[in-house]
Amino acid sequence: MKKKILISLSALLLISTITTGCGKTAEVKNGAKVAVSTNEEKITATEYYDEIKKDSISKLINMIDKGILEKKYKSDDKENEAVKKQIDQIKQNYGSNESTYKSVLQSYFGVSSEDELEDMLRLEYKRNEAVKDYIKKNIKDDEIKKYYEENIYGEVKASQILISSSAKSNATDDEKAKAEEKAKKKAEEIIKKLNKGEDFAKLAKKYSDDDATKSNGGDLGYFDLSDMEETFGNAVKKLKVNEYTKDPVKTTYGYHIVLKTGEKDKPKLNKVKSKIKDKLTDEKINSSNTIYYETLMNIREDEKIKWNDDSLKKAYEDYMNNLIKQANSSTTSTNN
How far apart are CA 125 and CA 178, in angstroms? Predict the structure, then answer.
């Protein structure tokens, strides 16, 4: 949950009376002062100050973003489902007691009703969509080419023998460690049998713990390496066709012995370009705690926001800089 940074209201409200000396002040437009405008939206000082009396600069930012995003991201079934799921989860956690539920809405989410909560979640959903689209749009061709050359492979066909740990979910750490070691040793014994020339399919039928594939000799068919756990995929990449792994491959399922039985040609770049852009977008978002706020600032700049009052502009910049600073601090804390 992103924290709100409250800006002093007294400093912001002074701009309604200051008319000289401190830079620009809001100009009168059709009988009302325009506080801020974009290509799509104009928010008058009257509208803003009615809201800021009971909130902070974040209220103005919400109004700006709603004006920008609601025209580009219409509510649809996907958004409705995502918002409903979030509200249902919150109600499941806190909704059994009405007074507690209302208190949580106010203290944790900064809203006084479920309708306000829904509005907030819808805006956040649209922001997330806008951030992803903006980052994806600005991915460079050389980034796409590099990812294609280093990470895209043709589909492969393989068979496996899976040896799973026998530890129960409520086992102690020591019991789990012993069960893991036992599974690994069993997998190593099977590899020794393969080294002596025993048939992979027969060993899979006899020893594999994967009920879905053991009856057909462990055959997984053709699959995309990116659909597999990283350790599994990396191990298969290194194999030649008809070669098996000489050491057990560890995943969350257990220890695998993998035999590569086929490989298709690498797909053309234009066939996977969109998928690569999606992957790079996710990587960029997950690699930075600040990119969300920085991208939102870029989106607003692209909308040609015109600040008609220097005090509001400074309050906005201070607010966003504080959010970025907090995000950086959380990164540092996590790394330590």
Answer: 45
Q: Please state the pTM of the whole predicted model.
A: 0.68
Tokens 């099977």 locate to: 190
How many whole angstroms separate alpha carbon 81 and alpha carbon 122?
A: 11
Instruction: Provide the pLDDT for residue 19.
Output: 33
DSSP character string of 254-266? EEEEEEEEEEPPP
Asked if residue 29 has pLDDT above 70, the reply is no
Predicted confidence at residue 95, as pLDDT, reads: 77
Q: Beta strand 306-307 with 249-251: parallel, antiparallel or unpaired? A: unpaired
Question: Is there a contact between 241 and 261 (Cβ–Cβ < 8 Å)?
Answer: yes
- Report the C-alpha gap between 128 and 134 in whole angstroms: 10
How far apart CA 204 and CA 156 sit, in angstroms, is: 19
Between strands 219-223 and 156-163, the pairing is: antiparallel
User: What is the Cα–Cα distance from 12 to 323, expressed in whole angstroms?
Assistant: 19
Question: Which pLDDT value is given to residue 17?
Answer: 35
CA distance 178 to 198: 28
Say which residues have a Cβ less than 8 Å from residue 9's Cβ, sequence separation at least 6.
Answer: 52, 53, 56
DSSP 244: B
What is the rounded distance in angstroms from the CA atom of residue 215 to the CA atom of residue 93?
Answer: 44
Instruction: State the helix-helix crossing angle for 269-287 and 141-151, rounded to 10 degrees.
Output: 100
What is the Cα–Cα distance from 142 to 282, expressed in whole angstroms? 17
Residue 244 vs residues 154, 214, 232, 261, 263: alpha-carbon distances, Å: 18, 16, 12, 9, 14
Residue with tokens 């530890």: 167
Q: Which two tokens stand for residue 159?
A: 């068979």
Q: Cα–Cα distance between 257 and 215 in angstroms, integer?
A: 16
